[in-house]
Amino acid sequence: MANFELTREFIEELKQLIENKQKDKLKEILDELHAADIAEIYEELTLEEAKYLYFLIDDEDKAADVITELEEDDRQKFLKSLPAEVIAKRFIDNMDSDDAADIISEFDEDRKQEVLSHMEDVNSAGNIVDLLNYEEGTAGSLMAKELIKVKESWDVPTCLRSMRRQASEVDDVYYVYVVDNDGILKGTLSLKKLLIASPKAKIKDIYNSNVISVKADTPSEEVANIMNKYDLVALPVIDEIGRLLGRITIDDVVDVMREEAEKDYQLASGITEDVEASDNVWLLTRARFPWLAIGLAGGIMGSRVISGFMGNLGNHPQMAIFMPLIAAMGGNVGIQSSAIVVQSLASGDMGIETTWKKLLKEFTVAFFNASILSLIIFTYNFIIKSDIALTLTVSVAMFSVVIFASLFGTFIPLLLNRIKIDPAVATGPFITTLNDIVGMFIYLTIAVYFFSIWG
Amino acid sequence: MANFELTREFIEELKQLIENKQKDKLKEILDELHAADIAEIYEELTLEEAKYLYFLIDDEDKAADVITELEEDDRQKFLKSLPAEVIAKRFIDNMDSDDAADIISEFDEDRKQEVLSHMEDVNSAGNIVDLLNYEEGTAGSLMAKELIKVKESWDVPTCLRSMRRQASEVDDVYYVYVVDNDGILKGTLSLKKLLIASPKAKIKDIYNSNVISVKADTPSEEVANIMNKYDLVALPVIDEIGRLLGRITIDDVVDVMREEAEKDYQLASGITEDVEASDNVWLLTRARFPWLAIGLAGGIMGSRVISGFMGNLGNHPQMAIFMPLIAAMGGNVGIQSSAIVVQSLASGDMGIETTWKKLLKEFTVAFFNASILSLIIFTYNFIIKSDIALTLTVSVAMFSVVIFASLFGTFIPLLLNRIKIDPAVATGPFITTLNDIVGMFIYLTIAVYFFSIWG
User: Fold this and answer.
1) A447 — phi, psi (to 5°)?
2) Distance linking the first and last C-alpha atoms of chain B
3) What is the mean pLDDT of chain A?
4) Which of B174, B251, B364 sits opposite A281 (nearest CB)?
5) A326-377: per-residue pLDDT in tens?
6) Using CA of residue A382, residue A387, residue A392, residue A395, what is the dihedral sign?
7) Domains of chain A in sequence order
8) Neighbours of B198 (CB within 10 A)
9) pLDDT score of A1 more than 50
10) Nearest to residue A53, comparing CAs of A12, A88, A7, A17?
11) How would residue B359 be classed by pLDDT, with cut points 50, 70 and 90?
């Protein structure tokens, strides 16, 4: 199959077919498409069109997958328009427990109860209820209960027989989990090992006991770092005494990683909600206003700083020439320093140096950059024949501001991380604004000093 | 096994053991650790210590994995100190073809030849040479040649027998690929399907023909988006006429995604090279200086703009009070707009609107934000009893600059993307600096106008 690409022409054609109720042609199209493609199409249709199209999907697993793949707000709108019984029997019954729990957790309490009570598979319903208890952002909330479990005391044929029974429940089988009689996780067995094992082999002789697992309350970010570091496609989740609870698959963790990266990027750019270019105007405005308001408040504070030096500016208006430059350089250096710290914290690559050593290193880096930048701006002012007070002011201020902003940009995220606040909030706009203000103050103070001597 | 955490104490202890050459104790420690952990430790050791430790690893696959997991610069330093024959026989022979090709591609031509000529497995050497031909950043450069291939004409037992033979070559088996007699990819067969299939079944009746694949020249970002969208753990790569060439596994794509996200984040923060907090001072300085130099150049241009208004500033120094505020707001709005476009382009969520519609939407968002911000700053100036010329200047300039910076921030990355330049270079510092300058110019021009009336 060729990879699907959404075009305006395709959507127009589809809307036409829906309007004319050409079921057979539509079913043919739906058959060719993957659930993720159908979900993408849904976002371009009206609710009525989407509903009509949806109930033409014959394959129940695919129908359930489409719901899973929808964006959260589209899904909520869509599900709201359907009775609880349809939701339970057409979707939830056909989903993996982790996807089902995610979707049910979006409902209010009453709807939750109603949907769960309509489920045909009581075992699945129980799994979902279990999963709903885990806090969002933990390994427990990411895991699915479906997995293939074998006992270490079995031999290969017993294992294969049991796996055949269990496999119908599990969508993707990457590993088989080996447990003891108490359900304690002992290790994993790759399907490849099973494939090449002698039929007489005992499970306990061929499984890999050096298995990496996480507890149910491990934070999602740590789960993502572990799966990435050890190149895992599935990670078992255990309880406090080591009993196997479920497994997390890589696709869910990739989503966590994407969201985390997008969130950090957006925070660094001053966007406070998860938005996309295709979102509506209201969402886009709301995501952007808060930071602009903070920037405005910061700017107003900056204007108070400048007002305080009004007399000096009146006497020496040339002071104003380099004011924005120094403020901007403070902002730039601060954002660089904080970005490196935030990213290293996120990926667990901080190294084992102490905070003092980190600050010392940052000071060294800043010292080099500050010296060169300061020299350049000195030379520039020398060439354009600025007066000596201004030349010295700009050079000394540049040096001080770069050093100060670097240390500040390094220290703030480390501090936030220490007190368990996401350091990503400190980058971008916040650091920039603060360094703008401080930079302006440093510059003007130095200016007043030098102009009092040579002015 | 508990998850490993690198501590200063552990490294000190290890260095002690290496110094005292306590082989048995060290082997015991190495046995307990995963390759990724050993790679992490390496970065904290001297080259001599690392070499000593390295040759204590008994398991050849693990030894090869450690090399794969090292950071590129550490790996190069380490491999440089070893003869080509050791590299070929101890590492390259024991690696998957994609990892081997990645590492060999880091060598110069002579060393490449020398290492390849020392390889024992000619078939592997051939695979590596094939892979070296694909351009970096394409599907071909990400794929491994190792995979399990069966013919659609076979029955299940024939398939299982062949798989047993092939499996010893392949590390992780997620899918079996079904091809016809010409090697054309027909579909995939999940191990789960094979597990539950009747022994009499024919492959052609049980495989999934609706398979997603990519051509060898598909860009890595697209590969990542496809694997993410369709939740795939492995993706087959085909040539122009559909013959199966290899497969890409999710772990390699997760690395691509991480790198891409980190690069975008760093560009947005003004960092020009991939650095971590644990890198050395020289690398950190080098990664940060280029943007600071550009920021400085932008700032100097800004200072020229202000110099041009020196006469006006001399007469009305209060103009200077809000100059940095307006410049900063232009920068902030611009970075927000460009960040949303860059991120949506990267994740393929741009929607199907035309460029004009996107700009119109951006204009609407900007209009709301501009109106509110303008009103707030007007009210503020009214309350602090600023003179009328300054009040009007700041309010009108705020409105104009926010609108201008939004459109500019949206348009530039769309334009860069159209002409095939990575739009991420446009975000962050670049947009900020440009909007700083333009913002200052707009502000001062409006100021001159209003002060000429009410001044």
Assistant:
1) -60, -45
2) 77
3) 88
4) B364
5) 988 888 888 888 888 888 887 766 666 677 787 888 889 999 999 999 999 9
6) negative
7) 8-137 (1.25.60.10), 149-249 (3.10.580.10), 281-454 (1.10.357.20)
8) 9
9) no
10) A17
11) confident
pLDDT-derived band at B285, boundaries 50, 70, 90: confident
Instruction: Kindly report, residue by residue over A22-34, the tens digit of the pLDDT.
Output: 999 999 999 888 9
**Burial of residue A366 (number of CB atoms within 10 Å: 0-12, 13-18, 19+):** buried
Beta-strand pair B214-215/B234-238: parallel
CB atoms within 10 A of CB A99: 21
Task: List the beta strands (DSSP E) in B347-440.
Answer: none
| pTM, to two decimals | 0.81
Which residue carries 């609108």 as its tokens?
Answer: B403
CA dihedral A404, A407, A412, A417 (to 10 degrees): 180
The dihedral region occupied by B133, where left means phi > 0, alpha psi between -120 and 50, and beta the remainder, is: alpha
Residue B124 three-state SS: helix
CB contact under 8 A, A258 and B262: no
Average pLDDT over residues B76-85: 89
Chain A partners within 8 Å of B313 (Cβ): 317, 320
Confidence class of residue A400 from pLDDT cuts 50, 70 and 90?
A: very high
Name the strand (E) or helix (H) holding B346. helix B323-347
> Using 50, 70 and 90 to split pLDDT, how confident is the model at B19?
very high
Nearest residue in B to A212, CA atom:
B1
The Cα–Cα gap between B114 and A368 comes to 41
Look up residue A154 and give its amino acid. W
Instruction: Please state whether beta strands A149-151 and A234-238 pair in parallel, antiparallel, or not at all (unpaired).
Output: unpaired
| Inter-chain touch A352–B376, beta carbons under 8 Å | no
Contact indicator for A228, A134 with CB cutoff of 8 Å: no
Pair A440, A304: CB distance under 8 Å: no
Beta strands in A317-416 (DSSP E): none
Mutate to test the interface with A, among B303, B356, B358, B434 (most CBs of A within 10 A): B303
Q: Are A352 and B44 in contact (CB < 8 Å)? A: yes
Residue pair A78/A70 in contact by the 8 Å Cβ criterion: yes
Q: What are phi and psi of B172, to 5 degrees?
A: -115, 120
Residue of A102, A332, A437, A443 to mutate for B, most B C-beta atoms under 10 A: A332
A137: its two tokens: 């952002």
